[in-house]
Design goal:
By secondary structure, the protein is of the alpha/beta class. It has one domain: Dihydrofolate Reductase, subunit A (3-Layer(aba) Sandwich). The protein is built from 7 helices and 13 strands. The site of the ligand Nc1nc(O)c(N)c(N[C@@H]2O[C@H](COP(=O)(O)O)[C@@H](O)[C@H]2O)n1 has 16 residues, from helix 2, helix 3 and strand 7. It holds the Pfam family RibD_C.
Length: about 240
């Protein structure tokens, strides 16, 4: 397998947004995704849509290289059947292990995992965050973390503390729309939990039927930087 190598100029651009140890011991959270010019991340619900050009797709793998875990919601798994691995590596023999984390309150992965591409290509088994109502009375090969649901939702701080308990020091959150829209505005004790926001903007419109990223309220960004490539732009920033 050949490594996905981003353009050289992306590396210094990303440098100050990559994970660093946090004084509170919680995992460093990078929120990153690719959107169209009309703020859509896919053409329709449940449809996988390529937005990133190769230069920014390879950037995503480069960013994965600096993280210990990669998190998506079950909606993304159902739509994309993702690999959630890291295909940027400096030595062919040294693949970077990145642990897939899936928010799956009803444990749909129980029946999906065996036929997934993830199982075929990714040696790192996912950790599934499930609702604590789920009954498991058979032997399963997946690692599950039951969490309480409040109005059907796991609290983000519960998720982050559970990751901290597993000694995971950095997590790259990639989507989908529900996860992104929630996390953009989530605060704990008055503070945002996202440490870096890295958004690829593809040179395309996906139309009004597309799955939209638009959080429930506006928010200010700081330390904003831009990189522009052949077809895509990338914005890196911090929230709040
Ligand atoms: N362009 C991009 O960068 C990306 C695009 N996508 C696209 O996004 C679409 C999927 O988006 P969504 O349907 O919104 O799916 P999603 O991946 O955000 O998953 C939503 C589901 O995850 C679970 N979930 C999320 N947050 C939770 C919480 N706090 N507590 C409990 N359960 C939680 C729930 O079951 C919820 O229905 C797909 O079309 C996919 O292709 C996904 C990732 C990245
Ligand atoms: N960076 C980026 N650009 C796009 O155009 C995309 N559609 C996505 N989607 C995300 O990448 C995951 C699939 O990638 P792997 O199979 O894991 O390599 C998918 O699940 C989305 O999270 N990302």
């Amino acid at each position: 397998m050949t490594s996905l190598v981003p353009p050289e100029s992306i590396k210094p651009f990303l440098d100050s947004y990559l994970p660093q140890p946090k004084p509170n011991g919680l995992p460093f959270v990078t929120l990153t995704y690719a959107q169209s010019l009309d703020s859509r991340i896919s053409v329709a619900k449940g449809k996988q849509t390529v937005i990133s050009h190769l230069e920014t797709k390879s950037m995503t793998h480069y960013i994965r290289h600096f993280h210990e875990a990669i998190l998506v919601g079950i909606g993304t798994v159902l739509a994309d059947d993702p690999k959630l691995d890291c295909r940027y590596f400096e030595k062919a023999s040294k693949k970077h292990p990145i642990r897939p984390i899936i928010l799956d309150p009803d444990f749909k992965m129980r029946s999906l995992y065996n036929s997934s591409t993830m199982k075929k290509v990714n040696a790192q088994k996912p950790i599934i965050f499930i609702g604590d109502h789920v009954v498991i009375d058979e032997v399963i090969e997946l690692a599950v973390v039951p969490l309480p649901l409040v109005n059907g939702q796991m609290r983000w701080m519960d998720i982050l503390k559970a990751l901290q308990g597993m000694r995971i020091k950095s997590v790259m959150v990639e989507g989908g729309a529900k996860v992104i829209n929630d996390l953009l505005v989530y605060e704990y004790e008055g503070k945002h939990v996202v440490d870096s926001l890295i958004v690829t903007i593809g040179s395309t419109f996906l139309g009004s039927q597309g799955v939209e990223v638009s959080p429930s309220r506006g928010l200010e960004l700081k330390d904003v930087s831009w990189w522009t490539g052949e077809r895509d732009g990338v914005m890196a920033a911090r929230i709040g």
